[in-house]
Amino acid sequence: MRPMFEGLYKALYPKSIAVVGASNNPAKVGYSALKSVLESFRGRVYPVNPHADKVQGLTAYKSVRDIGERVDLGIICVPAEKAVEVSEEAAEEGFASLLVMSAGFRESEDERGKRLQEALASIAKRHGVRIIGPNTHGFINLEYGLNATFVPGLSGKLRFGGISLIGQSGGVCHHILINAVMEGTGFNKVVNLGNRVDVDFPEMIRFLAFDRTTKVIALHVEGIDKGREFYEAVREASKLKKVVVLKTGRSKIANRASLSHTGSVAGNYEVFRSAMLQAGVAFVESITELMDLSYAYSTLKCSGVKGGGVALITLQGGVGILFSDVLESKGGRLAKLSDKTLAGVRAVLPPRTFRENPIDVSFMGLDEDVLRSIYRLLLEDDNVSIIVLTYAMAPQWELSLNIFEERAVKPTILGLSAEPDTIRRLRTRLEGRGVLVYPGPERAAVVAALLGKYGC
Amino acid sequence: MRPMFEGLYKALYPKSIAVVGASNNPAKVGYSALKSVLESFRGRVYPVNPHADKVQGLTAYKSVRDIGERVDLGIICVPAEKAVEVSEEAAEEGFASLLVMSAGFRESEDERGKRLQEALASIAKRHGVRIIGPNTHGFINLEYGLNATFVPGLSGKLRFGGISLIGQSGGVCHHILINAVMEGTGFNKVVNLGNRVDVDFPEMIRFLAFDRTTKVIALHVEGIDKGREFYEAVREASKLKKVVVLKTGRSKIANRASLSHTGSVAGNYEVFRSAMLQAGVAFVESITELMDLSYAYSTLKCSGVKGGGVALITLQGGVGILFSDVLESKGGRLAKLSDKTLAGVRAVLPPRTFRENPIDVSFMGLDEDVLRSIYRLLLEDDNVSIIVLTYAMAPQWELSLNIFEERAVKPTILGLSAEPDTIRRLRTRLEGRGVLVYPGPERAAVVAALLGKYGC
Q: A28, A191, A262: which is closest to B360 by C-alpha?
C-alpha cells in the first residue's frame, strides 16, 4: 500500500485496537463494538473504561494514556464531548487512527455539535491521526477478518467477495449487509463514513481503487462537500475498478433530513447524476440496484457487453412478457436472434412454444439437452450479449442448472422465485462459472438492463 | 351464489372431480394434477386413463362415459386433439365444468391450434358446460381447500386470506404464489384463465365481487378481447371490493409474445391504464406492487386515506432519506406534522436526532415508551394518514413491536430488512392489528405511496 494511505491502512488493517467506552452493559454501543472486535480480530485489544477493572473478560485501562503503545486503531464510543477529549489524548499517545462512533456532532440541532466537530477536525489536522466518523456505524474488513462496527456477528455471517462498499449512512449499509447475509453476496470492505470529519469519499475511493482484492467499488452517497475532488476520484477509480453509485437525498424533504443526518447538503440530483455518467461509473436508483449490479460486476468476467441485446429463456410465457416490460422500462432491449439461432431453436422446440426471443421453452425446460442446446446457440449468437433464464424454482428444475458446465463467456443471469437460502446456495455453486443468481424475474430484468446500459 | 354463476360455482366448489389423463408417471401433468387434488380435496375423485387399472392407488376409469355421474369438475390433461374429444364426451355426460390444462390451442403457431380452440368453444356453447382454459395452470380455492393446479403442495403451504387473484399467465401466478408462501401472504382463490375459451375476466371478476370471503380482487392481465365488458366488470366490482390491476405486455416484443402465449393481443397500455383509473381501481406496475398493495388492502380496515401524508419513524437517518426518495418517486408525499406532534416528539427525543418527518429516533428506538408515545402522537395528527416504521431487524428491536397493542386506526407499515420467515412470522402476529409487514424500506415506501394515491 502506498505511503499516502499509511494512516488509513493502519485503520483498516490494524495490529492493535483500543475500544474507548468499552462496556459490560449490552445496551451500550461500547459493549457491541468491543464484542464485534473480540469475535473477529486476532491482534491486541485494549478496552478503556475508567470505572471497570475488567470488560468482557479483559483487563480494562483507565485511559488511553495507560496503554503504553502506539495503537493502530482507537474505536471511540463515549459521548461527543468526551470523545473529543479522548481523541486528543489518543493522538498525543501516537494512535495511528480513530473510528469515532459517537453521535452528537455536526448532525445535531444545536451549535455545540458543530463546535465539537470542528475540535475533532483540528485534532486530525494537528496530529496527523486519521479519523473515520464521527457518527458512524464503523467498518468491516472481511479480507482481514475484522468487524469494527457496533453490530456483532456480521463478519462471521458475511461471505468474502469482491464488493467494497463506502456508505454515508450506517443504516443503509446495515440494510445492504442484512440482504448480503441472506442472499450470499460476497463483500470485501464496508466502510461507513458518517460525518467525514477527516477521512472522506475521495481518499477512500482512491484507497479501494488500489486495493488488490476489491473488484467493485459501491458507493452510497447522501451529500458531498468537495465535488471536484469526488468527481476526479471516481473517474480515476473507474479506470481500475467497476464503480457503482447510488445517490439518495433526491427529494426535497430528504435533502433537509440529510443535513441533520450526517450534516451534509444533498445537492442537485441531476447535476450529480450527469457528472457521474461523465466520470464513467454506473449510476443506480435504489439500494436493490446498488446491491444487484455490484454483485454482477464482482462475479462476471466479461467485456464488450455495452449496448448489447438480452436473450431470455423462460419456462413460462407470461413471465417472459413481464420480464420484457421491466427490461424495456429500465432502458434495456431484447436481442434480435440470428437466423441460425432461430432455426436451431425451432429444431429443438415444438411449435406450441414461443420460439423467438423471449424463448418460452415451457415444459421442455425439464429436458437438459434441449436447454443446453438453446443456451449454446445463444452463446454463439453475436446479436446476444446477455443471457437470462427465469424459473419458478421447483426442485426437479435444479437439474437443468448442469447446462452451466464451464465458465460462461457471456453474462448469464438466473431469475428464480425462491427463498433467499436457495439463492444463497445457488450463488455459491454457480458464481465460479460466471452465472448470476437473483430472486425473481423482475430483479433479473433490472440487472440485465443495467449491464446492457453500463457494459461490463 | 346467484344462479348465473351456477356452472362456475360448481367448478370452484365441486363435490366430485374427474382427472382425465391421470397418470402414475411423475413427469406428466396428469400425475401432478391428480396429486394436487388428492392432497387437498375431500370429495369423490375419478381418475380417467384407458391404459391403467389403478392410478395413484385409485381405480381408474377407461373413459368419462364409464363414471356414471354428472361430475362437477373435469380436469383435462391430455394432448389438445384428445382434449377436445374428451370434453365433448364429458359435456354429453352432463359434467358441470371442465378445467382444460392441455396446451396446443390458440397460442400455438399452427392453424390446427386455432381450429381446436374453436371446437372447444363450440362445446361450451352447445352444452352449457363451463370451460376454464385451455392452456391453464389451473386454480386454487383455499376457502374450500382445493388445489386444482399441476403444482402439488401449494394449498398446504399457502395461508388463507382475503386476496383472490385472477391471472392470465400461469407462470406469473406461480411466481406470486411462491412469494406468498415465503412471506405468508394470505390468498383466497387463485384462478389462471389461460386462453379463456369460455370463462373470461368479466365473469370471473363478477363472481369474486359477490364472493363472501374475497376482500381484494387482484388481476394480472396480458390482453383482453371484450374491453367494454371488462371495464364494466371492474367498475362494478370496485364498488364492492378493492380491485388491483397489473397489465403486462407493455413493450412491443412482449405484445408479440403475448399473442403466442395465451393467444391474445396486449393492446395499448396507456389506453388500458386510463380506463382502469376511470373505473376506480388501483393500477400497479410490477408483480411486487400487485402482491404488496393487495396484501395491504386485504389486511387493513380503514377509510379516508386518499391523498394523505405519510409519517416515517426510522431508527436510521439514512434509511429515512432513502425512503423519502422512493416515496416521492412513486407519487407519495411526507406529511407535514402538526405543531402539537412536533412539540411532543421534541419532548421525548434528544436534539441529536432528526425530530421532524421522517422522525429519526436512532437508538431511542429501543425504548418502547418513547416509540409508543411518538406512534400515538402520529395516530392523533390529522395531517398524517399513513404511518411507517423502518428497521434493520435486530432481535432486541422486536420488543418494540409491543407498541401495536390494539387494532391500528391508521394504516401502519413496517419495512424490515429481514429473512422471509421473519416477515411471515411478524405478518401472522401483527395483521390482526392492521399492521402491514414488508421486506425492506423500499417496498414499504412503494406501498405507502400507492395507499396514498389510491386510498383505502
A: A262
Same domain, A13 and A63: yes
CA distance B284 to chain A (A): 13
Secondary structure (DSSP) of A176-244 = HHHHHHHHT-EEEEEEE-TT-SSS-HHHHHHHHHT-TT--EEEEEES--S-HHHHHHHHHHHHHHSEEE
Do B165 and B214 touch, CB atoms closer than 8 A?
no
Q: Mind listing the pLDDT tens digit for each residue in A189-226?
A: 999 999 999 999 999 999 999 999 999 999 999 988 88
Q: Which of residues 315-374 of A touch B (CB under 8 A)?
A: 315-322, 324-329, 334, 351-352, 354-358, 360, 362-363, 366
**What's the CA gap between A378 and A385, in Å, rounded?**
9
Q: Please state, in angstroms and rounded to a whole number, the distance separating the CA atoms of residues B247 and B167.
A: 10
Nearest to A122 by CA among B379, B198, B433, A114: A114
Give per-10-residue mean pLDDT for chain B (456 aa). 76 98 94 97 97 96 96 97 98 98 86 94 97 96 96 90 95 92 96 96 97 97 91 96 94 61 64 93 96 96 74 90 93 95 93 82 83 94 94 71 83 91 92 92 96 90
Residues B44 and B110 grouped into a single domain: yes
Find chain B residues with C-beta within 8 A of A220's C-beta.
318
Q: What is the pLDDT of residue B281?
A: 96
Query: What ipTM is given for this predicted complex?
Result: 0.89
* Residues B308 and B294 placed together within one structural domain of the fold: no
- Of B72, B104, B136, which residue is a domain's last? B136
Q: Hey, CA dihedral for A428, A431, A435, A436, is it positive or negative? A: positive
Give the per-residue pLDDT at B290: 98
Nearest CB to B321: which of A27, A261, A326?
A: A261
Task: Mutate one of A325, A326, A360, A383 to test the B interface: name it (highest B CB count within 10 A).
Answer: A325
Q: Say yes or no: B363 and B243 in one domain.
A: no
Q: Does residue A100 sit in the same domain as residue A176?
A: no
* Per-residue cell: A321: 412478457
The average confidence (pLDDT) of chain A is 91
* Number of domains, chain A: 3
Per-residue confidence (pLDDT) for residue B307, from 0 to 100: 64
What DSSP state is assigned to residue B13? S
Q: Which residues pair with A160 in a beta bridge?
A: A187
* Structural domain range at position A237: 158-299
DSSP 3-state percent helix, strand, coil across chain A (nearest 5): 45, 20, 35
